[in-house]
Design goal:
The protein has 16 helices and 23 strands. It is of the alpha/beta class and 499 residues long. The chain is globular and about 85 Å long.
Length: 499
């Protein structure tokens, strides 16, 4: 069995804690590797190397740092198939979806190549008599990120690319469920010319997370995962004086107006609700048709589409719609929540509970489920299921549908399908959700805009990627300078004022 490593100071380093986690092939249920779980001493070693390497990297001018990222993009494209296959093998995604995971991270790297422009400061000539003022954006030092299993390529790149572009060193603690791709990314970055020690990959569990949160050298922490853990990391990191951004859970609503193109809306719900087996923080898990006729027409379109979904391993070809969920525990939790939906009175119109894939009986596959007549007091509405389960909540009016999205504790993403510009504009302006789609089911912004939700989906005041990333990974320093000329006439004891 393969034993994975950490990646510290440019080398693969075996774990010394004596603790390991199993890495599964979700399609077969077999353990394919074990990954070391770092202790505090191992994290200290990684931080020490990062702290030693970072000042020289920060002194490299931004254009030369950007050239490393340019080469990294070339290498990502060169190894795209290799990265996607490794990702699918550990996560379970289809190969096209795994390639999309890598590409959406690559796009952020491309944006970060613009670091010379994005790091420019400001200058004021003659702010006072003989006085100039200017500001600089400077690196924080050693930074860290704790990333989830569902995007093992994209989200690490969303964090470490801007951090490195800004001149920081970065400690990456990826998910222990699918750790191979982050290790491969570290190798590629050093092949691209990144100095040793600037990107360290430390595998681990809560012990490693707590070591990061309490380490006095680490200046900032990014996190993506569940809301309870996001709250813990945000509170602990801030209490220790760190800059922290945490992104938590979601329950994303898609409103379908009576005038919507029903085929378009149904197709959108299929990809947004069931793609990646629903294991996306931006997945649409609640469909809200407005009016009984709209609901009936939507269900007529959805039921045959859901029943026709092809579920299988990534090796079965590119026509597979989605693969297994990541672990047996995840499968059990989804099945538990489906049962609560039935027990609490929802109508399970497509029942995937008996799904069984011949030859893969031990895999973590979950059949597609579609609920109708869900109400907001039900567990399947209140909680993030993170599985191939779509709940339909019927609303009588647009205002009721809008209220559902606005009243939910999560505010990550939402969408509306309509042909009416007034309705779409009103929805976009009023809804208290961070990312909004108009006839777009999964409104993940492109790299040059920022990604982030509202309410209990986010903790912190800056979003991921886009301009916010360069703010998060730098501090602003403002300099006031004067070069005296003429004869010095003595000190001034009053506060300077504009004349």
């Amino acid at each position: 069995m393969q034993e994975l490593t950490h990646y510290i100071n440019g080398a693969h380093v075996k774990g010394t804690s004596g603790r390991f986690a199993d890495v599964y092939n979700p399609a077969t249920g077999e353990i394919q590797a074990k990954v070391p779980l770092a202790n505090g001493a191992e994290l200290d070693q990684a931080v020490a190397h990062a702290a030693a390497a970072q000042p020289a990297w920060a002194a490299v001018n931004p254009q030369r740092r950007a050239r490393v990222l340019m080469k990294f993009v070339d290498l990502l494209n060169r190894d795209m198939d290799k990265l996607a296959e490794a990702l699918s093998r550990e996560h379970g995604k289809t190969l096209p979806d795994a390639q999309g995971d890598v590409i959406r991270g690559l796009e952020v790297v491309e944006y970060c190549i613009g670091a010379p422009q994005l790091l420019k400061g400001e200058f004021t000539d003659s702010a006072g008599p003989g006085i100039d003022m200017y500001s600089m954006r400077q690196a924080l030092g050693v930074t860290a990120g704790i990333t989830p299993f569902n995007f093992p390529a994209m989200i690490p790149m969303w964090m470490f690319a801007p951090a490195i572009a800004c001149g920081n060193a970065f400690i990456l603690k990826p998910s222990e469920r699918d750790p191979s791709v982050p290790l491969m990314l570290a190798e590629l970055l050093e092949e691209a010319g990144l100095p040793k020690g600037i990107l360290q990959v430390v595998n681990g569990d809560k012990e490693a997370v707590d070591a990061i949160l309490h380490h006095e050298v680490i200046q900032s922490v990014g996190f993506v995962g569940s809301t309870p853990i996001a709250e813990y990391i945000y509170a602990t990191g801030c209490a220790n004086g760190k800059r922290v951004q945490c992104f938590g859970g979601a329950k994303n609503h898609m409103i379908i107006m009576p005038d919507a193109d029903m085929d378009q809306a149904a197709d959108a719900l299929m990809g947004a609700g069931y793609g990646a087996a629903g294991e996306r923080c931006m997945a649409i898990s609640v469909a809200v048709p407005v009016g009984e006729d709209t609901a009936d027409r939507l269900m007529e379109k959805l039921i045959p589409r859901v029943e026709a979904l092809k579920v299988g391993p990534y090796t079965a070809g590119n026509d597979v719609d989605y693969g297994p969920v990541v672990t047996a525990a995840a499968k059990a939790n989804i099945e538990r929540l489906v049962q609560t939906g039935i027990d609490q009175g929802a109508n399970l119109v497509v029942d995937g509970r008996d799904f069984n894939l011949q030859g893969y009986e031990d895999g973590f596959f979950v059949g597609a489920h579609l609920f109708d007549n869900v109400t907001k007091d039900m567990d399947i509405y209140k909680y993030e299921i993170f599985g191939p389960v779509l709940s339909t909540v019927r609303a009588e009016t647009y205002e009721e549908a809008l209220g559902l999205a606005m009243d939910h504790e999560y505010g990550n993403g939402t969408a509306i399908f309509t042909r009416d510009g007034d309705t779409a504009r009103d929805f976009a302006n009023r809804v208290n959700v961070g990312m909004v789609g108009i006839n777009v089911p999964i409104p993940v912004p492109l790299a040059y805009h920022t990604f982030g939700g509202w309410k209990k989906s986010v903790f912190g005041d800056l979003n991921q990627h886009g301009p916010d990333a360069f703010k998060f990974y730098t501090r602003t320093k403002t300099v006031t300078s004067r070069w005296p000329s003429g004869t010095k006439e003595g000190g001034e004891f009053s506060i300077p004022v504009m004349e």
